[in-house]
Amino acid sequence: MNKKVVIITGSAKGIGKAISQRMVEEEYFVLLVDVDKKNGQVLEAAFGDGNAKFIPANISNENDVAELFRFVMDNYGRIDVLVNNAGIIRDHIIWKMTVDDFDEVIRVNLRGTWLMCREAAKIMRKQKNGRIINIASRAWLGNAGQSNYAASKAGIVGLTRVLALELGKYNVFVNTVAPGLIDTPLTQALPDDVKQKLIDTQPTKSIGKPEDVAHAVAFLSSDRTRFITGQILYVDGGKSVGAA
Ligand code: NAI
Is the pTM of this model over 0.85? Predict the structure, then answer.
């Protein structure tokens, strides 16, 4: 494979789809990973042969992840960038949150990201080259109704920092992108009045686009950032600074 290879999880829609589009434009070969087979296949066809391949996998399943990395190495022989974007929400105030709500969010967001990082680390360490970009959320700083989600995303921040320490000497750099309110199927499911209230608390009084996150991921993937590791890049219209 002459092109650089990027794996992007949760790429069938929303932010992951925009990151995939951007990385195709950057001339990467894009491995689209998602549980959503229908949209994944549609996207593979839209990007065309030689640009992308869809691989169905559930990132929280250890066997799926092992199989995915085996397939990638057997067929493409390298992994330059891993973008851990797949994530879910199951929001409730804590006294209404079930153990299932907690377990499922931790399972996909944190365990899934950790499983993907572990397999990538084995390969990138040997390659002596690689970038891992983990998509967390501004919500790791705290959001009422998201005790499970904020904990999972705080876990991703901790994971990123540890991997920066463990992999730096192998020329593998690991960073987090923390989006704020972004217009995707995930937020489109919110009632209009709830969404408007969230927009009103933004310093920018606006909602971000998936492409805004994709630009940050493209930047952190580039060779120009070889001295940046273990960091959080917020793409949140300033919300992490405070509510306006
Ligand atoms: P989305 O719900 O629009 O898309 C998520 C994608 O991940 C879907 O295609 C889904 O099928 C896939 N997915 C879910 N579970 C999976 C699994 N176990 N294995 C493989 N794929 C799986 O979500 P959106 O909004 O695009 O979010 C992407 C990431 O950005 C998530 O990690 C989310 O937590 C984060 N984020 C989103 C924000 C927003 O405002 N939309 C704000 C901050 C962070």
Answer: yes
